[in-house]
Specification:
three-stranded antiparallel sheet; globular; mainly alpha; 280 residues; 47% helix
Length: 280
Amino acid sequence: MTPDSPPSAAPPSAAHPLLAHTGAQPTRVGAAFPGQRAVFRGRDLHRDLRDHHWLGLCALAVFGREVPKAQLDFFDSIWVWTSYPDLRLWNNRIAALAGTTRSTANLGLSAAEAMSEATIFGRGNEYRAMDFLIKVQQRVQAGEPLAEVLTRFLADGGRLAGYGRPISTVDERMPLTLAKARELGLDQGPHLALAWAIDDYFAQQGKPLRLNLGGLVSAFAADFGWSPREFTMFLFPAFLAGMHPCYLEALELPAGARFAMRCDDVAYEGVAPRPWPPAA
């Protein structure tokens, strides 16, 4: 480099950390060989997995291992009774708006799925609920009284996920879920017992923080040995069946008819009407 040369971003001898990842892309998850075969998580997709159920294949994709059939059946059933084709729900509303604006189906439903990662409802809530239950379980197993763990959690400003339901204190899906767990022999896990112990604690304290469905299914997932990230990814299509009808029904109506609003319906509380200033 001459004295007039511009300074380089890094010394010539320092290799960029991404250089090792250029060129061929080694992978452990699989690959397609057009005209020949495809490999999925180390197994031949068309030979070893040709009779696999799609949900089991999704689980294999997420977990990298086979998930017991009882666990798959359990969540498959929960997805059935969680599929509400109600366009008032926050994520279904996006599907209906996509239909009324004549968006394509995949674009609209993808946007609705993205909204399912909400903080209070859906994937965001379940991620935090599962993380909460795992950490509380670890502290209780280490000898800390449950009441002290919960008191400190709330005193430190912890936001409790998996407990409480904003609209109704009764969740019609809870009895179905518990009955299915008993039927499949999945109702004896330690995290499920902890979830109910926390529910009892808040009931004794007079707090309106009862275990909700998100907290309940998060406890089961923790008992299955799943991580919060695995659980969140596996639950991706959970609301999908309820979204399709909302989108299709909006298509049957005139464009813009869903959630149309008259100006008279707007309760305006801003600046009062004022005269337009005369031209200078």
